[in-house]
Specification:
Rossmann fold, binds magnesium ion, about 650 residues, Dna Ligase, domain 1, binds adenosine-5'-diphosphate, D-amino Acid Aminotransferase, Chain A, domain 1
Length: about 650
Amino acid sequence: MIRSVLIANRGEIACRIIRTARAMNIRTIAIATEADRSWLHWQQADEAVFLGEGPAAESYLCGPEIIRVALEHGADAIHPGYGFLSENAKFARDCAEAGLVFIGPPADAISAMGSKSEAKALMETAGVPVVPGYHGDRQQPQFLKQKAYEIGYPVLIKAVSGGGGRGMRIVNKAIEFDEQLASAQREALAAFGDDRVLIERYLDNPRHIEMQVFADSHGNVVHLFERDCSVQRRHQKVIEEAPAPGLSDTVRAAMGEAAIKAANAVGYQGAGTVEFIVDGANLEKPDSFFFMEMNTRLQVEHPVTEMVTGLDLVEWQLRIAGGEALPLAQDDLKLAGHAMEVRIYAEDPAHDFQPAMGKLWAVEFPAGPNVRVDSGVTAGSVVSPYYDSMLAKIIVHAPGRDAVIDRLRKALKEVQIAGVKTNVGFLGSILADGEFSAGGIETGYVDRRITELTGGGPGPALAALAVDQWLKRSDQHQARLPGPWQGGSGFEVGGLERTVGIDLLVDGQPADAEIRWKNGSAETIVGTEAAMPDEGRARIVWGGGIAYVSVDGRQLSVAFPSPLERVLGVSQGSGHVLTPMHGRIVSVRIGAGDTVSAGDILFTLEAMKMEHSIKAPVDGIISRILVSEGMQVDEGAEALMIDQAPAESPG
Ligand code: ADP
Ligand code: ADP
Ligand code: MG
């Protein structure tokens, strides 16, 4: 029996594990970093130990140090959560050697499934269908390109050790192959320390449907039904649900059987997920699904299964790790109602889902029956550049899918997060979309509908509203304005008509604002729009002197010039390109003197284990470059300057 557990993870999943452990009277030990001081997980544990400043390598990924802390604090077991060390076979072995129970499968099962190519070979032998492709050892680019040709485009390049959608590239034509291969290998090496890849056919109209499995140390294996995770961005799930829309009982049973076969093939124990890619056009055929990979851990989306089965999967994990048999047999397991989860990320959907960082000045989540919020943050938490940018999950359970969508839409409207951009508005748009509510969308849905799903949000009129508030907040601000309002000028404000301009940064980009004074009252204009209250839906939260304006889960920030900046006349032209986040420059595509068009890729930056392409904001000529390949950059550093092309004169 497990009496105390160290949780080698952070954020919502650490909080989640602590909740069940506490209910089972198991003592909890959390680890945290200085960067996570403002997060909740370590505050909720019985004991907490701080390791390192921030980088995962010195903290959540530092196996030996974590084992040392576990022993020192008398832990019996280590729960790795997901990500980090959860699929690290060496760590699982080291735990066992130190006399600690690793809450997960045996190390050999992790190794067997850890390499996507070895896992595929193993599954072929076990009679589990796999996607046609090349998953051998040869890695020469020419050879892989030949294989891609034989498989037939489009193909998918995948990192053999990949996860979280990283190191994965779709290649539509042979001409793109070399560049995509190089990019996948670079990302794979940086994220997983292994640049090997496999090539497989990219399925048309694919759906991602996965099976939750559980096995104990007494030879029992069951599946806990499926989850449909087809709503993805960057090949990473954002909405998951159970049951999968349109899945027949026959195919469900066939998939469940295949998943159990997969688990048996590697001597599995504990919680695991067998992911299938499914040909969405032929869902009713039992041979339309293929093994993709097995995640040998608790999954982010496990609450969906908890809601439709009424079970606590973390409790099952703890019991099985303690040597107990599975609490239920296959026939005892029943699906009840429908459940759906949305993942809330700190990111900017309108800019390629770039992760966002910063302080959360306000955090509010919904509550109510059948609405579950799993979160690791609170007002004041700081989203640092070191980890995955997921903040929370909201999960809803109802008798049917329509009722779930309806309740989830309402729940999302109650979410208030100010300080960083989030995907809340984007999630709301999906839930409001007819194609999604019809059920059965494919994994390409988000990319295909990206414009509609990421549009909207606060515009200049709401930025102007923030300027209004700024003026009212403090009379002192008026002293910052130039012209007759500067101290000692002797002008009377009342009765005069006067317009002054102020330089704003709206979402970090320079914007012009005007304040027009007339008969003692002020009208504010940003760009060409006057301040306009947005039917009360807009909310403004102030933090660190910046206004965070949000409407329907979409936020923009309005920063005001400091007196010093005004004196120095710091004003940025729109051809000024700054680095959007802390990271490393991977490649620079342009040189000084090059002509670029708005939207052209200028350079790529690696941050949070992903590559981000920075695009030209305007047409023009590169007049200055300050970044170079391999360089580490800070957020907001000057990267390059584009001299805007003069407008063409007619005739
Ligand atoms: P799921 O299928 O449960 O969504 P993912 O593969 O997307 O699982 O990864 C689960 C979580 O773990 C994600 O938040 C991801 O960013 C994070 N993650 C994946 N790999 C790592 C890693 N090597 N180190 C840290 N976090 C990781
Ligand atoms: P990861 O380890 O990063 O989770 P997976 O192999 O599970 O990688 O794939 C992640 C996602 O990529 C899938 O959920 C699916 O959307 C897409 N995908 C993977 N393989 C294929 C394929 N052969 N055809 C089409 N889409 C695929
Ligand atoms: Mg996967």
